[in-house]
Structure formats: structure tokens, C-alpha cells
Design a protein that fits this description.
It is a single chain. It contains 6 helices and 15 strands. It is α+β, with helices and mostly antiparallel strands. The strands form 2 sheets. A 12-stranded antiparallel β-barrel has the order 4-5-6-7-8-9-10-11-12-13-14-15. Strands 1-2-3 form a 3-stranded antiparallel beta sheet. Strand 9 and strand 10 form a beta hairpin. The longest helix is centred in the C-terminal third of the chain and has 16 residues. The two termini are 28 Å apart.
């Protein structure tokens, strides 16, 4: 494993830009995202040392671009496949829409988790992509399923490609745990698997206190109810059936998240992250046992 693969995602001095211009390093490559400012103090001593010169000269990678959406197909997915009735429009962002459609990019072999997120009308709200993977990890994903026990890191980006949340699922043996943070590393909370057999349950934790839970409705964990600390359902995740050919011959999983009413943060951020965590935490094991 080379040094650059261990460099954490963050804002660093743009190696080919003017002084004071920062560029986003996603954990494996430079992206097209820039901003003015100073390198965070905790990164400054390492910024020029951790990323080798050949990566400073590379062509900048582009943030993951959403797949083109077919509005009619998205609406069919929401209304007919997920059984979610049309509802009011939200504010047009990942955190203000009452319905999020999370569709994984279809691949014959999955080496990098990639998703597009839409509203109920098919408008793009953001993307999710796995970051910081080493070449060795991709090779292991190609030849085996051992990656289910490895650490996975996902970055949630808005429609403009700006990071809004990061999800880290540390290496697991039986139960999964997902740590949710802001792009600057500030903690949001954790999503912690409670059991390994039967209907899977996760606890939503903030500062060591449980603020909600995710409850699978069958042992294969296709659909989930999300409840608050009082046990009242506040949201629901429904996996949508995409047809026999796509299910059998690709790795894609598609979900619809319905949020029943506006939620306060950090519970809202955990619920949004949950729609992506379900796939990362459970899909690695096709039995749905964690």
C-alpha cells in the first residue's frame, strides 16, 4: 500500500494552483472541487508530505456524477414499487425532501460502491461514492467476498458535488457499526447493529445516547422501519424490485426512503445516512445476517 492511500480526505493546498487555493483530496485522488482558504492547522505539516508529487501532477478527478434520471421511471419506483403516495415537495436538498430515491450504479462486479440520489420527481439531489480504497482492497473485492470484513468509507455529496456527510464502517467480524461525521470530521452519531440473527436491528446513537432505531421487517432485511426513542415510526426504507435480469446479473440495489415529518438534527442526518448504511452494512453478506 502506498503512502497516498493512507492520506485522509480533506482540503489541501492545490498543488497546481495559486497560494491560498485549496483542493479537495477524496482519499484516493484530487477532485475538481476548490475553495479559497487556509489548510487546516492539523493538516498543514502533513499536506505536502503525505501526497506524493506524482499525485500532485495528476489530472484532477471529477466528483461522482449522478446517473441521468428518467423522471417517469423514478416516479414508478416510488409510487408503484415502493408503494409511497405522492407527497409535498421539500426544499430541494438531501435534508429537506420527504422522499429520497437511492439507486446504486449497476455493475457486473462491484469494486466501488456508487449511488445516485433523487427526489420523488426524479430530480438529482446528490451522489454517494466509496473513497480511500487501496488497489489491494479492490483486488480482494474482485476475487472474493472478504471485503465484507474490511473498513468501508462513503462520502455523501450534494447536487453540486460538495461533501455533506461521511460514513465509515470499521472492519467488522459479526456486527456492523457505522460512524457518521461532517466533512470536517465533526461527529454526528453512530448506527450500531444490535443483533446478528433474525430480524436485524440497529440503534441510532448520539453522544452515547440512543435517539432512535432501525428495525428490519423480515429476516432478509429488505425493508426497514425507522423509529424514534419512543418507538414511533418516523421514516421507512423500502427496497424496490428492479427486475430479474438486473437482480441476478448485477450488484445494484435500489431503495426508497420516506421521511414522515421534518426531523431535528442530528437525528435527521442519521436517518438520511441510514438509507445508505443499510446497503453498506448488510449487503456485504447476502444472507442479511450482518
Amino acid at each position: 500500500m502506498t503512502t497516498h492511500a493512507n492520506t485522509p480526505a480533506g482540503w489541501y493546498q492545490d498543488p497546481n494552483g495559486p497560494q491560498g487555493q485549496l483542493r479537495w483530496w477524496d482519499g484516493s485522488q484530487w477532485t475538481a472541487q476548490t475553495q479559497a482558504g487556509q489548510v487546516p492547522q492539523q493538516q498543514a505539516p502533513q499536506a505536502q508530505q503525505q501526497i506524493p508529487q506524482q499525485y500532485a501532477q495528476q489530472q484532477y478527478g471529477q466528483p461522482a456524477q449522478p446517473a441521468a434520471a428518467d423522471p417517469a421511471r423514478i416516479q414508478q419506483q416510488v409510487q408503484q414499487k415502493a408503494g409511497v403516495a405522492p407527497t409535498h415537495q421539500g426544499g430541494g436538498s438531501l435534508f429537506t425532501e420527504p422522499v429520497l430515491v437511492v439507486n446504486q450504479k449497476a455493475k457486473l462486479i462491484e469494486l466501488t460502491n456508487e449511488y445516485s440520489v433523487f427526489d420523488q420527481q426524479g430530480r438529482t439531489l446528490g451522489t454517494v461514492t466509496e473513497i480511500g480504497q487501496s488497489t489491494l482492497k479492490k483486488a480482494l473485492r474482485f476475487v472474493s467476498s472478504v471485503d465484507q470484513f474490511m473498513t468501508h468509507r462513503l462520502e455523501i455529496r450534494d447536487a453540486a458535488g460538495q461533501p455533506v456527510l461521511q460514513l465509515t464502517r470499521p472492519a467488522k467480524f459479526i456486527k456492523s457499526r457505522v460512524v457518521v461525521t461532517r466533512p470536517d470530521g465533526a461527529p454526528v452519531g453512530e448506527i450500531v447493529q444490535q443483533n446478528a440473527i433474525g430480524k436485524i436491528n440497529f440503534a441510532l446513537m448520539v453522544n452515547g445516547q440512543q435517539v432512535g432505531a432501525i428495525k428490519a421487517e423480515n429476516w432478509r432485511a429488505w425493508n426497514f422501519a425507522i423509529v424514534d426513542q419512543n418507538g414511533t415510526e418516523i421514516a421507512r426504507i423500502t427496497k424496490t424490485w428492479e427486475g430479474l435480469a438486473k437482480t441476478m446479473f448485477t450488484t445494484a440495489d435500489n431503495y426508497v426512503l420516506q421521511i414522515h415529518h421534518q426531523l431535528p438534527d442530528p437525528l435527521l442526518s442519521l436517518v438520511v445516512a441510514t438509507a445508505l448504511t443499510v446497503d453498506t452494512a448488510l449487503k456485504q453478506d447476502s444472507r442479511g445476517l450482518g
